[in-house]
From TrEMBL:
Pfam family, one: PrgH
Gene name linked to the record: prgH
Residues annotated as transmembrane: 60-81
Protein name according to UniProt: Type III secretion system inner membrane ring protein PrgH
Lineage top rank: taxon: Bacteria
Keywords: Membrane, Transmembrane, Transmembrane helix
GO CC terms of this entry: membrane
Length: 310
């Protein structure tokens, strides 16, 4: 008979010899003094004791595991909230229905770049970001501004480089047009230049350098002037070509000339082919009248001018 004392009372129970007995937090065996231990019992006792180690140890392990999981969850949540994809989605939402006009590009410098197609869209997007209280690092870019920025850098570090223009049809993979005839750089030097340009544009995955023919550049300029029926003269000089649009042009012809020149510069830039407009006053304007099928012009009473030979 085993008598176990507890708070306020005692408990008596019969036990078997050489059999594990639970007493409080202890596991014990009882044997007669004259008898040996049963051989397998100590092993059972050791195993049972291991199973009944203080529960608070398991509680500590569980608590530590819980804190670890909670920490991972918190870090993961913060990463998701601040991930480039999440920030890009916030910018898309801020741009609203007009977001199709822009491309949001996460940069390697932890900034977000909003690529606009023209100056008007650039101004609009900057105003939206300013009014929308967007607290992340974001910058609106466009092709013209980036060309000016890159050109300033090239003028400093590659002043003799014969290039045309940087194209942003795909902002993640800009294309840099270089003169084939006037370029003296080796393949390795071109690769180094490509990497330097990429470093200047954190939103770009790569910068492709393409060699273009000077003959093609000048040929497209001359063909365009002929197509627009604009009078011009061509002047070749070292390092480039200048087309001079000249004559007594009316307002429609001047507008047509400027639209063509702007379109050409957007493709080829203005470093190799340049345009100039020399306007000549129409000395008959405002004081002459044309009558008849012969095309004569009355200059004043009793005075006529015939622009074509009789």
């Amino acid at each position: 008979i085993l008598h176990e004392l507890k708070e306020g009372n005692s408990e008596s129970r019969s036990v078997q010899l050489n059999t594990p007995i639970q007493v409080g937090e202890l596991l014990i065996l009882i044997r007669p003094e004259s008898e040996p231990w049963v051989p397998e019992q100590p092993e059972k006792l050791e195993t049972s004791a291991k199973k009944n180690e203080p529960r608070f140890k398991n509680g500590i392990v569980a608590a530590l595991a819980g804190f670890f999981i909670l920490g991972i969850g918190t870090v993961g949540t913060l990463w998701i909230l601040n991930s480039p994809q999440r920030q890009a989605a916030e910018l898309d939402s801020l741009l609203g229905q007009e977001k199709e006009r822009f491309q949001v590009l996460p940069g390697r410098d932890k900034m977000l770049y909003v690529a606009a197609q023209n100056e008007r869209d650039t101004l609009w997007a900057r105003q939206v970001l300013a009014r929308g209280d967007y607290d992340k690092n974001a910058r609106v870019i466009n092709e013209n501004e980036e060309n000016k920025r890159i050109s300033t850098w090239l003028d400093t570090y590659y002043p003799q480089l014969a290039y045309y223009r940087l194209h942003f049809d795909e902002p993640r993979k800009p294309v840099f047009w270089l003169s084939r005839q006037r370029n003296t750089m080796s393949k390795k030097e071109l690769e180094v230049l490509s990497q330097k340009l990429r470093a200047l544009m954190p939103y770009a995955d790569s910068v492709n350098i393409t060699l273009m023919d000077d003959v093609t550049a000048a040929g497209q300029a001359e063909a365009g002037l002929k197509q627009q029926a604009l009078p011009y003269s061509r002047r070749n000089h070292k390092g480039g070509v200048t087309f001079v649009i000249q004559g007594a042009l009316d307002d429609v012809e001047i507008l047509r000339a400027r639209q063509f020149v702007d379109s050409y510069y957007r493709t080829w830039g203005g470093r190799y082919v340049q345009f100039a407009i020399e306007l000549k006053d129409d000395w008959l304007k405002g004081r002459s009248f044309q009558y008849g099928a012969e095309g004569y012009i009355k200059m004043s009473p009793g005075h006529w001018y015939f622009p074509s030979p009789l």
